[in-house]
Automatic annotation (TrEMBL):
Name of the molecule in the record: NADH dehydrogenase [ubiquinone] 1 beta subcomplex subunit 5, mitochondrial
Assembly and interaction partners: Complex I is composed of 45 different subunits.
Membrane topology note: Single-pass membrane protein
Transmembrane feature ranges: 65-87
Length: 191
């Protein structure tokens, strides 16, 4: 052990020269090799550092992709395996009297039934939503037509101020002004 620690010291040739006699030829050859051998560079190239672009973002992307991929794949695989092994596909059977099956009960696979029941709208539901939208739009159209007609009549008759005028003039004063205007038009003949 002592010899090995002495060999691995910082100056092995000096220690080996002092430990052994000079007549051992094999040991002399090892000592000569240790003396002449310097630092070896394989390949004979310069001692330069290659500057390369960083691959940090690529490795970070791969790590996050694998993490989130398996974060989703493992639970979904467990759910699918559980549904296929323990629940299994639905079978056809007679419908009891007075029972009306829902839309999601017609599907065979349990995952499909769950998705149709909770997330996918049925034909009846989408039809009723569309009808509600059409009725709402028809009511808005009628209100716009009524507002346009009211504005046109107010402009034509001039008996009430329109919604964009000031609210200081009341209806009775507007009617009195209209009567006065009609009287002036009838006496002078101006239009």
């Amino acid at each position: 052990m002592t010899v090995m620690s002495l060999i691995s010291a910082s100056r092995p040739t000096y220690i080996l020269n002092n430990l052994v006699r000079r007549d051992n030829s094999q040991l002399q050859q090892i000592i000569r090799t240790l003396r002449t051998s310097g630092t070896k560079f394989g390949g004979g190239h310069d001692r330069t550092l290659q500057i390369l672009p960083s691959r940090y973002q690529w490795h970070k992307f791969k790590d996050l992709f694998h993490f989130y991929f398996f974060l989703g794949v493992i639970p979904l695989t467990a759910v699918v395996v559980y549904a296929n092994i323990f629940i299994g596909p639905a079978t056809l059977c007679e419908i009891p009297e007075g029972y009306e099956p829902e839309d999601h009960e017609y599907f065979r696979h349990p995952i499909t039934r769950y998705l149709v029941k909770n997330y996918i709208t049925t034909m009846q539901e989408s039809y009723e939503r569309n009808m509600h939208y059409l009725v709402h739009m028809e009511q808005k159209r009628r209100m716009r037509l009524l507002a346009t007609r009211v504005e046109a009549l107010m402009r034509e008759r001039g008996d009430y101020p329109n919604y964009y005028t000031t609210r200081t003039i009341h209806g009775k004063y507007a009617r009195a002004m209209q009567i006065e205007r009609d009287y002036i038009q009838s006496t002078t003949g101006e239009e």
